[in-house]
Design a protein that fits this description.
493 residues; alpha+beta; Fumarate Reductase Cytochrome B subunit; Sulfite Oxidase, Chain A, domain 2; 2 domains; 5-stranded mixed beta sheet; 17 helices; 12 strands; elongated
Length: 493
């Protein structure tokens, strides 16, 4: 009879908890753009899998937010179009799952347990095939004291193949990783292919979990539950194992219920408490480094989605009709030399052009050419004080009028740190694909921060303010979407 040590049983339980949290929060993230592609252009109609029946209008402006679905809290964490909170739960569960997995692998190889899991002979292949034939013909395969060949191969594949693939494809969806190490996402033939593979990994985990549960039931749920939670049924009555096992499952379900309820009832509290753990990790892993993107003109996407509707004020419309000739960019705050620059003046500055990939937080991507002024050059002119740590980009966009249903009112703004602003590919763009920046994409000016997700690249910029801290601005979370949609200010993944 198998005898499972305590550390193995504990990591088994924690794995169940964290994987179930990852699945539900992953579905919440997927609901923001429920379409999967093998190409990074994400051209409408090119998706290989749709999890939505929505059809976008042909002859009117629509935004990527219109493509979102509202998944039920019964399946997604927390559900109801809460992308920001879903990401917080996903990254928190990621940290727990990775630590649990690291502990499991270390203990596996410092104890004899690896012999039970790791195949040591090619004979496992025909053995697994014969075991599969037996199960298909409704005959159980019993191998006292060890896993049968099919079980061993399945467990080994999940631990050493499926799990690393899920981690690797998750990293490939980070704009920070993709920008700094372009070769890495080429391994997966692009970000969208990595996203699709990541989704297939989720499906594989679900299939494995269902098969694993079926085996527990088929082999006798009482004895199998005792084996899983107590380690050895020889010295303990099987009913106790069943009770303890069901109590553990009930605990996992209770955690999901509490996490969902608190997220929907107290979203700000959940945002702050999860960020306290995950933001430091995200900043350490994804917040540094410079963009090295160098796409060619032939790779520019034929279609580039719009995220967010243009400002609805009459004053902005009039400015756009006049070609923004009267527009003035203000640069102030903690600087030695405040600036007031017209669009024409900015165009006379040395122009920087770059072809880069835009990664939206919702999941879609596209490649475009951007032309504008380096933020590093602007900082050379205004000379920020030593106390300045962040740049606040104030927009011409009042969400109370442009998107009154987008979760909150107020003037749109976003922040980035001085370090990100110093990246050679961080620019204020006034051109897109060789033409003046279109209104839906942020005219007259938009930020490009190529190691970050798209929501950090504020459109319709009218003012840049240098500050020591952003806690006094808006709701103090670092941006309009952080304030109202509970995003994190760390946007490297």
């Amino acid at each position: 009879m198998l005898d499972f040590p305590l550390w193995l049983r504990a990591t088994h339980f924690l794995n169940l908890l964290f994987v179930s949290l990852l699945v539900r929060s992953g579905l919440e993230i997927l609901s923001a753009h429920p379409k999967l592609y093998w190409n990074d252009d994400c051209t409408p109609g090119s998706e290989w899998r749709r999890l939505t029946r929505k059809q976008m209008p042909v002859n009117e402006l629509w935004t990527s937010r219109d493509e979102e679905e509202s998944f039920s809290p019964w399946i997604a964490l927390p559900g109801r179009r809460n992308l920001g909170l879903g990401r917080h739960w996903h990254f928190l569960a990621d940290a727990g799952w990775l630590l649990t997995g690291l502990l499991y692998v270390v203990m596996l190889f410092v104890t004899p347990e690896w012999r039970r899991l790791v195949p040591t002979s090619w004979s496992i292949i025909p053995g697994a095939f014969h075991a599969l034939q037996s199960y298909v013909t409704l005959h159980l395969v019993v191998t006292p004291g060890r896993y049968n060949s099919l079980e061993q191969l399945a467990y080994f594949s999940v631990v050493f193949l499926l799990s690393p693939l899920a981690i690797a494809t998750g990293l490939a969806m980070s704009p920070s990783i993709a920008a700094r190490f372009p070769w890495y996402i080429r391994i997966f033939r692009g970000r969208q292919a990595a996203r699709s593979i990541h989704f297939l990994c989720l499906c594989a985990f679900l299939v494995f979990s269902a098969a694993h549960l079926a085996m527990v039931v088929l082999h006798g749920e009482v004895s199998q539950m005792a084996l899983i939670v107590l380690g050895d049924v020889r010295h303990v009555h099987g009913a106790l194992g069943l009770i303890v096992g069901l109590a553990g499952l009930g605990g996992v379900i209770l955690i999901h219920i509490v996490a969902t309820w608190y997220s929907l009832r107290y979203p700000r509290m959940v945002q702050r408490r999860t960020q306290a753990v995950t933001d430091r990790l995200r900043h350490a892993l994804f917040g540094h480094g410079r963009s090295a993107q160098q796409y060619s003109a032939s790779e520019i996407s034929p279609y580039f989605r719009v995220n967010g509707r243009p400002p609805a004020e009459a004053a902005y419309a009039a400015m756009a009709r006049e070609g923004f000739v009267n527009f003035v960019l203000e640069v102030d705050g903690l600087v030695e030399h405040p600036l007031r620059l017209s669009l024409e003046e900015l165009r006379r500055w040395p122009k920087q052009t770059q072809i880069t990939k835009h990664d939206c937080i919702q999941g879609w991507s596209a490649v475009a050419s951007w032309g504008g002024v380096s933020l590093a050059r602007i900082m050379e002119r205004c000379r920020p004080l030593e106390s300045a740590r962040y740049l606040v980009f104030h927009a011409l966009d009042d969400k109370a009028t442009s998107e009154p249903d987008a979760a909150g009112p107020g003037q749109f703004y976003g922040t980035i740190g001085i370090e990100l602003a110093s990246d050679p590919q961080t620019i204020l763009a006034y051109e897109m694909n060789g033409e003046p920046l279109p209104v839906p994409h942020g005219a007259p000016l938009r930020v490009r921060v190529e190691t970050q997700l798209g929501f950090a690249m504020v459109k319709y910029v009218r003012r840049i303010e240098f500050v020591h801290d952003y806690k006094h601005i808006g709701a103090g979370q670092g941006g309009w979407r952080e304030d109202h949609q509970y995003y994190s200010q760390e946007a490297g993944i």
